[in-house]
C-alpha cells in the first residue's frame, strides 16, 4: 500500500466515523432535564472619579475615560456612539 492509499483510507475512515457520529444524539441532548442556570450577579459598575481618571480629570464630568496603551484618556462623552476615541 502506498502512502497516498494509506492517507485516503484514513480520510475515508474518519469520514465514516463522522457520519455515524452525526446520526446519534449528543450526550447533552439525551439529558432528561436541562440544568438550572445559576443566578448571575450584574457586573460591577466602574465609577471612575477624578482621582482615578488620570491627570486631566479623565472621567470627571461624564467623559468616556477609556485609556489607550500609552495611558492617554478619551475625552469624548461617556457612552459615545463614535467607534474611535479621542485621546489627550
Describe the structure.
The chain is mainly alpha-helical. The chain has two helices and no strands. It has helices spanning 3-23, 50-53. The longest helix is centred in the first third of the chain and has 21 residues, at 3-23. 8% of the residues are buried. Residues 51-64 have a biased composition (Gly residues). Residues 1-88 are annotated as: Disordered.
Mean pLDDT: 74
Largest sheet data: none
Distance between the termini: 69 Å
Q: Which runs of at least 5 residues are low in confidence (pLDDT < 50)?
A: 49-59
Strand content: under 5%
Shape: elongated
Order of helices and strands: HH
Number of strands: 0
Main structural class: mainly alpha
Radius of gyration: 28 Å
**Number of helical segments with 4 or more residues:** 2
Helix content: 25-40%
Secondary-structure map with pairings?
Layout (H helix, E strand, L loop, with lengths): L2 H21 L26 H4 L35
Defining traits:
single chain; 88 residues; mainly alpha; 2 helices; 0% strand
Summarize the structure.
It is built from 2 helices and no strands. With 88 residues, the chain is mainly alpha-helical. About 12% of the residues have low confidence.
Amino acid at each position: 500500500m502506498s502512502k497516498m492509499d494509506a492517507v485516503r483510507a484514513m480520510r475515508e475512515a474518519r469520514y465514516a466515523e463522522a457520519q455515524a457520529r452525526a446520526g446519534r444524539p449528543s450526550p447533552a441532548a439525551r439529558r432528561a432535564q436541562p440544568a438550572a442556570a445559576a443566578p448571575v450577579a450584574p457586573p460591577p459598575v466602574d465609577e471612575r472619579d477624578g482621582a482615578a481618571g488620570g491627570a486631566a480629570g479623565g472621567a470627571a464630568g461624564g467623559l468616556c475615560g477609556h485609556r489607550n496603551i500609552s495611558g492617554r484618556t478619551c475625552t469624548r462623552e461617556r457612552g459615545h456612539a463614535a467607534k474611535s476615541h479621542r485621546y489627550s
